[in-house]
Amino acid sequence: MTKPSKPKPLLQDADKPVRSRPRKPRNLAQPNLPLDPMPDRVDPCLALLKPKPPKGPQWALEVKWDGYRLAVHIDPSGVHILTRGGHNWTDRFPAIAAEARRLPVATAVLDGEAGVFDEHGRSDFGRLQQSLGGRGGKRMSREAVLMAFDLLYFDGRDIRQTELTSRRHLLEGLVPAGGEEAIRLSEEIDADGDVLLRIACEHGLEGIIAKDRNSTYRSGRGGEWLKIKCIQSDGFAIVGYEKSTAAFGGIARLLLAARKGDELVYVGGVGTGFNERSAAELREQMDKLIIGKPSVDTGRKRNAVFIRPELVAEIEYRAWTHDGKLRHAAFKGLREVQDEATVYEME
């Protein structure tokens, strides 16, 4: 039987403390590992509208949130929150900015949607606008929550050319599921697309988003992301209003227009969705834009006041009539210029 070998003594005197070898000075000719520069701004990947959810395991499904698209940039100099149009709104979302500073990462760019939730857990665009002081307001929204759904830059690496599955894996490590903080993970939902859409609609949500798991992050509306809505919701230019002595703010109906090529065309009106406060604020802004003649042909209108088409209203609607007018429309709020207030383009 062989005796167990004795452990070899450390190669130093027993009465001296253990120390590592002294560091050699770095060879200046040997380069550091290069890091990718953090982008100052990223044009967001936009979802293409589809009537039905796609089929197949390549598609990841999420809830569609109703709010403002934001990019949260985190670096050693601090946190910067940019709108879809590239405007710095860090000061307007203090809770999101504070939570971003607490994330366990040195550098990152998160993509997500800021929203304010109602008592049923649904994001509500109108509540978000009210929390910010209305269109053109300067109020801070402490209630807003960022639902983070993508990670574009992480610890010195630009990962936009990495497939969605890997980007999501890193995001889930950074923003765990099930949190109640000001930055939360927009979770993937393992379900059939048709079933998920039906459930989303039954719960009064705006719709769902489908994303190609193998896709890289590409700015614009390239089809890698798809949106399927329960109720249509788009931006329309306000070209005037009809007066009323009984309605909130004296507004009987807003007169709306969409883009068709290089022109605006009249698409009908909306007379619901206002409350006393929103109607008063809207009337105040519209009366600063009054013009003598309509900018589009609205047909004959009684008690109509026409304005320059500078305000963009977010409108919910169920369908279109055969002559190109909105059906069952409701006013949701005014879109901010900083949020790329685009006007709906007709085919």
UniProtKB/TrEMBL annotation:
GO terms for biological process: DNA recombination; DNA repair. It comes from Rhizobium leguminosarum. Its EC number is 6.5.1.1. Residues 137-229 form the ATP-dependent DNA ligase family profile domain. Belongs to the ATP-dependent DNA ligase family. PROSITE patterns: DNA_LIGASE_A3. InterPro entries: ATP-dep_DNA_ligase (IPR050191), DNA_ligase_ATP-dep_C (IPR012309), DNA_ligase_ATP-dep_cent (IPR012310), LigD_ligase_dom (IPR014146), NA-bd_OB-fold (IPR012340). GO terms for molecular function: ATP binding; DNA ligase (ATP) activity. This is DNA ligase (ATP). It catalyses: ATP + (deoxyribonucleotide)n-3'-hydroxyl + 5'-phospho-(deoxyribonucleotide)m = (deoxyribonucleotide)n+m + AMP + diphosphate.
